Amino acid sequence: MSAFKPEYVANRATQFTEIIKECEEAGFPKHLLHRSLGLCLVIADPPEDQRLTVLNEVWKVVMKLKNSSDYISCAEVWIEYVAKNFSKREVNTILGDIIKHMTPDRAFEDYYHQLHSVISKILSHLHDFSVLFSLDKFLPFIDMFQKESAKVEVCKNIMESFIKYQTEPTSDPVTLNSLMFVCKTMHDSVTALTLEDDRRVISNLICGFIRKITFGRDFEQQLSFYVEARAAFNNLDPVLIQLIQSVNNLSIQTRNVVKGNHSRKTAAFVRACAAYSFITIPSLQNIFSQLSLYLSSGQVAMLNRCLSQGDAFLKAAISLISEIPKVITVDGKMRPTEPLLVNFISNFLSTLLAVPDNPEEGVLYLIRGMLNVIQDYTWEHNSKVIVYTNVLSLLSAICQEEYLYHIDKVDANDAMYGSDSKFLTEVSKICTTLLEEILTRLQELGDTESLKRQSGLALELFNKIVAHGDLTKPSMFTLATNLWSLAQKHGYGDTKQMVRTLELVKRKGARKEDRIYLDLANKMSLQSRA
Asked: Would the pTM of this model clear 0.90, i.e. be above it?
């Protein structure tokens, strides 16, 4: 039979079943003939009026096979024929028959590979998962995989198919409950000995499942699902991160529906979303994931005018900075954390501009708290100076009469203080302290080995002063010229950068109201390295 083309066999399927029926068992086992016939009919379809007749004739013989090996070798092939050409009822019947044959004496334990093949073939043809999980024999079939590694592989296969073929979000309760069971099986297989690649694959599959579940405008039901998922999948960081981001997105969706004007009910709901995130974030293992989510969750809370919740997120992020280790493992390699921390603090500071002070906490209490943590943290590579210069940029923006950006429907400090002289005095004091810290550090870098760092940091501070400082004040003007001289004093300045900086200052001085920059440019001589 294998010598013929599959199309030839398919067009004469009923004839072949008759020929097989008349064959003597002694010459060649009939189950092998039925298996070969099935392999042909999977590749090429028989005429439509013959399909059911062929299945009935073949299955009458196959279901009577006593030997488990002979039976499963046929069933493994014919299940694809059934899934391809018939409805869920026939698929369910075949699954039930396989369970009936493989359960006695735990025969299934010897045929996990074939049973997995049965699942794969069903999934390749049956893409409606609400139909698939409505089969009352499907989950009992999965239960035959008693060996954990085999069961996990089957669950992965199911989830891969769901993510690939389920193009529309779903809230079907049968599908949801069944996939929760499948995902829970994968999650519970993860231990301390699980390879990182396996952990990543399982996490991605569960995250894909979470993204596919939506209850439309029933946001409370959606949050309940996320609560249930957090309880079920609390051992995988990427899944918890996905859940937190999904809840934050849910909070934003709520805001969009009410167009930013919350009722008592929606205000309570977005606070519940904030509480979910606040409770979940500390359970993450990766400290930078915690920092990032504290910040984004705080931004979402502020956008929903949950000011006390937003404050709590930002305070938690500030407190966590002191716990950051010097190095972390990334893809099996040890990496320093300082560049990541500097980047996070820059992002954090840009958010603080739009966050109003809490009247009970005092002026700029979040910035003061951040500075205290930065002061106590043990820094290397002069990152502390870079952070301080970034804080100076923020403080300059805070002194403006009207800020460059705001959180919708939230009054920032420009509206609260209205450029009050006492407020500006407080900001000035902080700026003075920071400048003293930076200049002290620049002096400490005066030894030969650190001159290049000194040059780079001096130019960085010079640029901040040009961008944000009031150069009409003699002290600020003198400081800028001294920093320029220091940046190229020992010949370590980046010549191209110095030239570009000088050109920028000259362009700023081209306007009549900014002639002070032209005066500064005249003081900015470029030293030759010859």
From this structure: no
